[in-house]
Amino acid sequence: MLKRFCYLLILSSAIACSSSKKTTGQVASNELSKAEKKDGWQLLFDGTTKNGWHIFNNRTDGSAWKVDSGTLYYEPAARGPKGEGSGELITTDSFENFHLKLEWKLTEGGNSGIIFLAREDLKYRYAYITGPEMQIIDNDRHPDAKNVKHRAADLYDFITAQPENVRPIGQWNEVEIVLNKGKLDLYQNGVKVVSTTMWDANWEAMKAQSKFKNTPDFGAFKKGHIVLQDHGNKVYFRNIKIKNL
Hints:
Layout: H1 2-24, H2 34-39, E1 41-43, E2 53-55, E3 65-68, E4 71-74, E5 89-95, E6 98-106, E7 111-118, E8 133-137, E9 173-180, E10 183-188, E11 191-197, H3 201-208, E12 224-228, E13 235-244
Antiparallel strand pairs: 1-13, 2-5, 3-4, 4-13, 5-12, 6-9, 6-13, 7-8, 7-12, 9-10, 10-11
């Protein structure tokens, strides 16, 4: 009788737990909810492989980019003495008007970025000279963060993110990039932190005051790839998903 009672108790707890998950709408990492699928979202990272990604211009085999426990991360210790296995990780597909979501976290003193509208061509040595970047950085410990336009969630070298709401090192940050017919909005941890319009007179004025003023192709492409930057530091990504607008 006691055994039967214990069995029923365990069974009822399992059912309650399952019901709770359905009620709260919880979705596992690197998966899409039914609502997201219906709304046209697609995963760019499946949680187990690097399918759909490669190194910019195929310069290396990308072996320093690892997948473990549902995260996609760059491991500096895995690169060779001449940079073997390293490089910017770029999507196979390109996008024009889109809504991108992902989560990132850094180790202490780290630096990286999310580049978009990147153009892949052998005449470009790096993706970052072709497409704008949402900055990822340790605001407190990386020296580049002393520049007010090089801090976490900034539109790199163009616009300072406001408010500054990056979470402590080691914690996940949720970010979004929304680009639709030139209107660009960046979100960090649920808050819009940058809003601008690409390719208008103000954009060109900002570019003329930036480090890209002598890089004519920077930010010029209206369709391009998503890139996760290799800045030589360990950085983690997960829940990378995109919807065409």
